[in-house]
Specification:
By secondary structure, this protein is mostly helical. It is 40% helix and 8% strand. It contains 7 helices and 2 strands; from the N terminus they run H-H-H-H-E-E-H-H-H. The protein has helices at residues 8-16, 19-29, 35-42, 46-58, 82-85, 88-101, 154-157; strands at 62-67, 75-80. It has a two-stranded antiparallel ribbon. Helix 2 (19-29) packs across helix 3 (35-42). The radius of gyration is 19 Å and the shape is globular.
Length: 158
Amino acid sequence: MATPRVCSVARSLEVVGERWSLLVLREVFLGVRRFDQIQLHTGAPRAVLAQRLRTLVEAGVLERRDYRPPEGRTRQEYRLTAAGRELQPVLTALMQWGDRHLAGPEGPPLRVLHRGCGAPVRARLVCDEGHLLADDGRELEPVGPGAAGPASSPAAAG
């Protein structure tokens, strides 16, 4: 039996790889920060939502902040940390893929636009030198301990 590949994708999925976690992140990115509103917009059961929020806070993706409504007790809301904000391209890429492959005849239910110019926002692969890469993975070269094995190159996979 082969040894599982060392992989940051698997590690990341431990934190955000569950449906409710991704939907929580979607809501917080859209400005929804309070438990009841997150539950309303995601449809998550209360116990499941509480656990997902706890996991995201423990992982440093979200932070809890106190707030106090004018006539109420102190409550908590959830804000993205720097690590959480770095997940925006991930959610954008998932939405983009879903829009392309799963949207019904009515089209995508949500569009994200650049406030500066009004153009749609897309996730793209760019190297540190600024080169825009093709979406098919042919320009990627896996290196490091997680790349070991015959299926590690895009050429072998395709």
